[in-house]
Amino acid sequence: MNEIIQAILSAVIMLATACAYVFCIKFLLPKYVIKRGYYIEDNLGRGLKRFVSDSGRALLFEPHPSIRKYIKQYALVSEKGNKYLQCYVDRGANRLTYSIIMLDRNDKVIDVVEVEEVTAKRNLTQPVYLHPDTSYVALIVGSVNKAKLADSAVSYYTQNSIVIFGMVTAAITLVASLIFSLSFSNFMSNVGAGVSSDGVIYFLTSLIAAVAAGVISSLLLLMDCNKNNVRVIK
Amino acid sequence: MTDREYVEKGSYTHPQADGYIALKQYIFIRRDGKRCLLLRFANEFSRTVHGFEVIVTQLSSDGRVIGRSRVPYQNISVASGNTYSPDSGIVVRENCADFRISLVYFVSGDYKYVIKRGHAVAHYDPRGYEVPKTNPARSTQIAVKSVHRNGGIFTLIAVVSTVIIVGLCLVAALSGSGGKKTTAYNGGDVSVCDTAILY
After folding, report:
1. B175–chain A Cβ distance below 8 A for any pair
2. With contacts defined as CB-CB under 8 Å, which chain A residues touch B154?
3. Does position B155 have pLDDT exceeding 80, yes or no?
4. Is this model's pTM higher than 0.90 or not?
């Protein structure tokens, strides 16, 4: 009877360890260890005019000079609780891909959306609905007429943060692997299966798992950066 | 048939706001007994202009102002660099010897550019602009996707790392069992095998 309880307890510890591990990797590390930076300062527009009407209000902006030849002006419109953005694009830019970094009043990035659009001769894009807390935006043009622009990166990671991410992942993996291995050993011995009870072997395999997890996580992150046009800077 | 007589033709050389709508040429004609002014504008703006308004100030031979009128041109489409010659002339006084033109505003797309002190101030005014029938349909959004949530890669990392942990844990547990022997019934024959193989 005592063995069954110990087996159940070991199984619960294994499950809890796995859940805690996944939670750490998926939520805690991206939030506290590896933070993605955004190119905001170089992509802010200049406010030109404010319009107030019965239906709402609108702010007219002139984009940053680097993209002004593609997007002439853009307007942030707030109507009936909805906020949306419309761009007035150059007539030569028939197919446009641009990213909108939404920021709140505390300069915190709320959301980033990537828009691909075919513009008509009126040169006015369709409204892109923004997060309700959006106070201002930064615009980055990714491609014009299917030609990708050189300076179109929206976000970045630092090299140090990726290295730290790999090391922290390895450390968490080591701890989780040790707990998991010992619980597994205890579980198996309580259900009558003969498994190794040598702690050195479990430690060595946990160490291997930690190193592998650290390296693979860093590599996967770098591959994701390459795929999603996220820069890695010093 | 209208009776038309050309009176005077020339280039407009007075200073104008640069980079917007500029008057290039003018012709004084006499049509149906009335003195008229025909104008030719050039769109020096970087985009297509869909309407504009000018103030025409008529001057007598001694330089006195003898008349002033606002002339709007709506629902037009003049591409950048092209010229525009309205069909309708402006009826002027008989003693009008000279004139001045000043641009009040022009419309391009959903923006109305009001000229103030020689510079255009943009106003977002989509309702003030009627789309000419020749213009195509509205713009088309192909894709709008959020790229802020990068949870996908971290989910993958978590799954891969968990698999590594579980896999290596199993390897360690089973490979290090040290040959603890157990028996298994195998179709009537009693055989001896390693526990690690069974599990």
Report:
1. yes
2. 25-27, 29-30
3. yes
4. no
Residue A75: the pLDDT is 92
Residues 84-143 of A with CB under 8 A from B: 88, 90-91, 99, 109-126, 128
DSSP letters of B28-74?
EEEETTEEEEEEEEEE-SSS-B-EEEEEEEEE-TTS-EEEEEEEEE-
Read off the pLDDT band of B139 (50, 70, 90): low
- Residue B130 main-chain phi, psi, to 5 deg: -100, 130
Query: From B159, which residue of chain A is nearest by alpha-carbon distance?
Result: A22
Of A113, A194, A224, the CB nearest to B195: A194
User: The tokens of B39 are what?
Assistant: 């104008």
Q: How confident is the model at residue A125 (pLDDT cuts 50, 70, 90)?
A: confident
The reply to whether residue A126 touches residue B173, judged by beta carbons under 8 angstroms, is no
pLDDT digits (tens, 9 = 90+) for A147-203: 888 777 888 888 898 999 999 999 999 999 989 888 888 888 887 776 776 778 888
Contact state of B154 with A25 under an 8 Å Cβ cutoff: yes
Start and end residues for every CATH 2.60.40 domain found in chain A? 40-152
Residue B150 has a pLDDT of 64
CATH tag for A40-152 (out of 2.60.40, 2.30.110, 3.30.9, 2.150.10)? 2.60.40
User: Mean pLDDT score of chain A, rounded to an integer?
Assistant: 86
Contact A116 B143 (CB under 8 A): yes
CB A118 to CB B122 under 8 A? no
Contact A169 B161 (CB under 8 A): yes
Minimal CA separation from B179 to chain A, in Å: 9
- What is the full DSSP assignment across chain B? ---EEEEEEEE--S---TTSEEEEEEEEEEETTEEEEEEEEEE-SSS-B-EEEEEEEEE-TTS-EEEEEEEEE-S--B-TT-EE--SSPEE--TT--EEEEEEEEEEETTEEEEEETTEEEEEE-GGG-PPPTTS----EEEEEEE-S--HHHHHHHHHHHHHHHHHHHHHHHHHTT---EEEEEETTEEEEEEHHHH-
Asked if residues A140 and A115 have their Cβ atoms less than 8 Å apart, the reply is no
What are the beta bridge partners of residue A128? A85
Out of A72-76, A88-92, B160-164, B191-195, give the one with best mean pLDDT.
A72-76
Supply the ipTM of this predicted assembly. Answer: 0.73
**Residue A75 backbone phi and psi in degrees, to 5:** -125, 135
**Residue in chain B nearest A185 by alpha carbon:** B173
